[in-house]
Design a protein that fits this description.
The structure holds 2 protein chains of 2 kinds. By secondary structure, chain A is of the alpha+beta class. Chain A has 7 helices and 8 strands. In chain A, strands 1, 2, 3, 4 and 5 form a 5-stranded antiparallel sheet that branches. In chain A, helix 3 packs antiparallel against helix 4. In chain B, strand 3 and strand 4 form a beta hairpin. In chain B, helix 4 packs antiparallel against helix 5. The longest helix of chain B has 18 residues. The chains are: A alpha+beta, B alpha+beta. The interface between A and B is large, with 80 and 100 residues.
Chain lengths: 213, 266
């Protein structure tokens, strides 16, 4: 098809953005030098309106985290924590520290602390040694992850490792307390809309108008 | 539920293209004709681009009965945009390799929706609207602010709980937010490069300046999986927020600008 003719029918702002996008096209997906450093941050935990958690098992959380990190960074044995319940304090491969303040990196063991820190194995990656530390609250839920050790002196490696450590998706936010103007989600059908948060928002908005269309 | 009781302006929900389109104009002076024109536009788009209607031009193209060069300008514009996204996405976004409801392998719906809603925003602006939000089945375009002080607050649905949010995006228009996921309609996204439906992500949300590209990019990122995070970093002005199947979240560095604390701007 004639691209010139088609471009004329596109509105100018879209055309400008397309030109910018094409000018900035990556030479290849595998070009690691173009990566941008990812930010590590923890989403603040907000109590849900229902006061329930659907996935409370810390061990599965940790296993899932380890799997995710492994699949992302190619770190096969990142957090070698056992699968059995109660394995957190007896993990053979990880260093477990029970404390109320900060990580010490040594195994002391305690059953009365409010937080438990689990240090992963030092993983030898092609970018250098990497070690992460997971923090569990007194209820056994995973509350944060931080990187203890990353390859130094190589910005590219650091950026990759920053990327490889995910932000934890903590508690879901209560829609009632979030006070949002709209909700973005997977495309719902007209039938799905009837049960959606968005329809409730629309009802509330309509209620604020004397004349609705 | 909403950010306080909102009065004034215009609000309308139209069911079209198999979804609900919520139009919320906060300008007190915006004429009703603006909404009417948007509604008529969306129904026009539906009749032209619907892959569900056997007699639509899109279905005729899919069956090989209508050449693209003979199609009207709007169809050619959409297909040009589709081709742009296909090139940008290394073939992941390919409207000629999508199983369509009309039994062909041609379905540009993944771009038509965002494009038609972005155009709807242009219609409202032409009628003088400066503060509005349109939500088309979960994909959103905003202009201005909801009032003189606050940014728009857009919740991202939690992929495993329809009544909860995973995050709130704060933004001032022009801005678009689109989320791609399979929790509403099942495995409707196939990565043609791999031939499989992606399962690595529960949802992919993209934020950008326009809904045409933002919506298509959300589909691309979802199909690419975690690798989509690197891809979207290359698209200037667009940022992403991903939730993986193990309920971890990832985001681009630039996404941070949308996470401002609710106390800073109300």
């Amino acid at each position: 098809m004639s691209n010139t003719a088609l471009q004329q029918s596109i509105d100018s702002s879209t055309a400008d953005r397309l030109a910018q996008l094409q000018a900035r096209r990556a030479p290849a997906l595998a070009d690691g030098d173009k990566r941008t450093v990812g930010r590590i941050a923890t989403v603040p935990s907000t109590p849900t309106g229902k006061g329930k958690r659907r996935h409370p098992a810390a061990k599965s959380r940790l296993a899932a985290l380890a799997m995710s990190i492994a699949s992302t960074g190619g770190l096969a044995t990142f957090l070698a924590v056992g699968q059995q319940p109660g394995a957190l304090a007896a993990a053979p491969a990880g260093v477990v520290t029970a404390t109320t303040t900060a990580a010490t990196g040594s195994a002391t063991g305690s059953s009365t602390s409010v937080a438990t820190l689990v240090n992963g194995d030092v993983a030898r990656t092609r970018f250098g040694p990497v070690q992460v530390q997971a923090t569990f609250g007194s209820d056994g839920n995973l509350t944060s992850v931080q990187t203890l050790q990353t390859p130094a002196g190589d910005r590219r490696s650091v950026s990759i490792n920053n990327r490889a450590v995910p932000t934890l998706n903590t508690e879901a936010l209560s829609a009632q307390s979030a006070q949002v103007d709209s909700v973005s989600g997977a495309t719902y059908t007209s039938r799905g809309y009837a049960q959606s948060l968005q329809s409730a928002i629309d009802e509330a908005r309509s209620a604020g108008l004397t004349d609705t269309i | 539920m909403t950010a306080g009781r909102v009065t004034g302006g215009l609000h309308h929900v139209e069911h079209v293209m198999g979804m609900a389109v919520s139009i919320d104009v906060r300008d007190p002076e915006c004429p009703v004709e603006a909404i009417v024109e948007v509604v008529e536009w969306l129904h026009d788009v539906d009749s032209t681009f619907s892959p569900y209607l056997a007699d639509s031009p899109i279905s005729a193209i899919g069956r090989g009965e209508l050449a693209i060069r003979d199609a009207d300008a709007q169809i050619r514009e959409v297909l040009s945009l589709c081709e742009t996204v296909r090139e940008l996405s290394y073939g992941v976004f390919d409207v000629f390799r999508v199983p369509a409801p009309n039994s062909t392998m041609f379905d540009p719906s993944g771009l038509v929706k965002g494009w038609s809603i972005e155009r709807s925003a242009h219609i409202l602006e032409r009628h003088g609207a400066r503060r509005f939000i349109i939500n088309a089945g979960g994909d959103i375009v905003v202009r201005g602010r909801p009032d003189s002080t606050a940014p728009w607050r857009i919740g991202i649905r939690h992929p495993r709980d329809p009544e909860a949010l995973a995050l709130v995006v704060h933004g001032i228009g022009p801005l678009a937010v689109a989320t791609s996921a399979t929790y509403e309609r099942g495995d409707h996204i196939v990565n043609p490069v791999t031939g499989r439906s992606p399962h690595e992500l529960l949802s992919a949300t993209v934020v950008g300046p326009d809904l045409t590209m933002t919506d298509a990019f959300a589909t691309v990122v979802f199909a690419m999986g975690l690798g989509g995070l690197d891809w979207i970093e290359e698209q200037a002005g667009y940022d992403a927020y991903l939730i993986t199947a193990d309920e971890l979240t990832y985001r681009t560095a630039g996404f941070t600008r949308y996470l401002q604390a609710s106390t800073s701007l109300g």
